[in-house]
């Protein structure tokens, strides 16, 4: 299959998204998205420029975290905010965890100004961070990409919980960026010794779930996210064995609990999925990986107990009546 440019993929995704929103397509979107995933371009490895973390920044971060843990007021100075955005691409797992802890605390306690959130949001959605080196073989830029996804989820939750600073245009733009991200991202890693968690395929469904809680999204938007996130997981040629299935399952169960339309769409996804697994070469490592990922996802949803009965029957392959 000939490779496409990112610009062409993005344009086609926007057209598919628009078709779902105006109701001219439904399950027809699935083979179209699959083609885009399989036609994503590959680039040669290039140098990843990791940020330098100064001792001053580390001391400031430790100080703010200490105040947050002691339930004291935290007022970030402007210099720290700028440096915080500059270090998000770090490969230090401990630092990324501390940044997540601080941002979560500040959002929970309403200690971030809306103007600061807008700046953070613009930075996190900047392709220079969100798509950094995404077309290259496994590399350290993934740490910045996945932290951006995780922080965006926090900010989206904060906006929904009371900040109310995102416009409908902001949210729609993010839906399309997450769609493109799902098509382009192929890094399967969970935990990396010395650098901490990658976990892209946990962060991706988590932000998809949060987006689908926003009132700005219509059903076509949610179907679009369901399609790109699940198809990206389905076509992953590597084993995802560190809990990613649980996050994808939680996203699907939450979405299917909102309306029967998403159940109907998932049943169509399941039908295609099973047919593809049956036709795959059982001797290939890619086929085995996809079978592994499929089984773990289905098991996690079956164990949850919220899965609609007819979908349970489709998964286990039985017509047993209630």
UniProtKB/TrEMBL annotation:
Top-level taxon in the UniProt lineage? Bacteria
Name of this chain's protein: DUF2785 domain-containing protein
**Family matches, as InterPro entries:** DUF2785
